[in-house]
Design brief:
Growth Hormone, Chain: A; mainly alpha; 2 domains; 17 helices; single chain; 360 residues; 78% helix
């Protein structure tokens, strides 16, 4: 019961943070990252005290911060890379989520296999402290290296010099051999951004994002994509993987332990995220979405059929294929649609739909 409570309260935090995240990132992507990295450190610190109330509060705070950071970082990526690379780099949001899932499953290996020894181990503190390490690294990078806002965001604010400073860090001006030629190339790039993109996306109020004819179709379409993204059942598989493995092993002889099987699923999720980086650069969003949902449906049917036939190994293989298909297709496509198609205030609503649909 406590495991479900602690897991659910973090998802609740993500949902609430997502709703407010669209407004938070309007005032600056870097500002939001600094503030909510600090919230993450606070939440992880609270989780170091072993009691259900502090664990729940700490997980809620971490989830709340994650809801905002998901939006700030995914927007930052899309607003920094050139348009032709948004598929490849935009899928990094899903990649890092998959990496987090894998690290979470692998970190479970340091815990005792026998629940009778849970009270004697202190390794759980390290697991809960991992976000502190990640946030310190991220804050250091944003403090000492990436000191500017994303390129598109700076251009939208009319801060061309800051945009050029960021370009100098991440983009190379083709055929430019002198500082003057480089500056001219950057000016041309900025002019092209102003010509071909909506510079008002960071200023649209929430009411217009959901009701105005110019924005509402994108908002509600992406909202439904986010809802169906979680209705695939991926979150339930991740959260209850240990119980699923107990079911698999109860069907008949199965060569690997439940803990090892969970780790393999986490690695499978990560591998799907890696392949997606290259696949999203080659194939269209709609193609990947349709293909992915078709494959996931087939794998779920296969898992059910093999469960009825009491065949544990094929059932486990179908679960892994389902996870890989999600991380390859629906996971990255959803984040790309959210980042590319919605204005800031709508992004929070859409990500809320994605995570709120997990709480069933």
């Amino acid at each position: 019961m406590y495991n479900t409570l602690i897991s659910s309260v973090s998802i609740l935090g993500i949902a609430i943070g997502s709703l407010l995240g669209g407004k938070a990132v309007q005032k600056g992507r870097r500002r939001a990252i600094f503030i909510f990295d600090a919230f993450t450190i606070l939440g992880a610190a609270l989780c170091q005290y072993l009691s259900v109330p502090t664990l729940c509060i700490g997980r809620f705070v971490c989830g709340f911060a994650a809801g905002v950071l998901n939006i700030a970082l995914s927007k930052s990526i899309i607003e920094t890379v050139p348009e032709k690379y948004t598929g490849m780099f935009g899928s990094l949001s899903n990649f890092y989520i998959a990496l987090g899932v894998m690290l979470a499953t692998v970190s479970g290996l340091v815990l005792p296999h026998d629940s009778a020894y849970y009270e004697e181990t202190e390794w759980w503190r390290f697991v809960y402290a991992c976000p502190i390490i990640i946030c310190i690294v991220q804050l250091s990078l944003f403090t000492f290296y990436w000191k500017e806002e994303p390129i598109n965001y700076s251009v939208a604010l009319g801060e061309d010099e800051k945009a050029k400073s960021m370009m100098a860090r991440v983009l190379k001006a083709p055929n430019a051999t002198t500082p003057e030629e480089t500056d001219a190339a950057y000016n041309a790039y900025i002019a092209d951004l102003r010509k071909n993109s909506n510079q008002e996306v960071s200023k649209v109020p929430f009411k217009d994002a959901v009701c105005h004819p110019l924005y509402r179709r994108a908002t509600w379409t992406c909202f439904m994509i986010g809802v169906f993204n979680m209705q695939t059942g991926l979150n339930a598989v991740n959260v209850y993987m240990h119980r699923l493995m107990d079911i698999v092993k109860a069907l008949g002889p199965f060569a690997i332990t439940a803990n090892t099987a969970v780790v393999i699923c986490g690695v499978t999720d990560f591998c799907g995220g890696v392949v997606a980086i290259f696949a999203m650069h080659k194939f269209g969003r709609k193609t990947m979405l349709v293909f992915g949902h078709s494959m996931m449906g087939l794998m779920e049917l296969g898992a059910g059929a093999f469960f009825q036939a009491a065949l544990p190994a094929p059932m486990y293989a179908c679960l892994n294929a389902f996870i890989f298909s999600f991380s390859l297709t629906s996971g990255p496509v959803t984040w790309l649609y959210i980042s590319e198609c919605t204005v800031d205030t709508a992004t929070g609503l859409v990500v809320l739909g994605l995570y709120a649909s997990c709480m069933q």
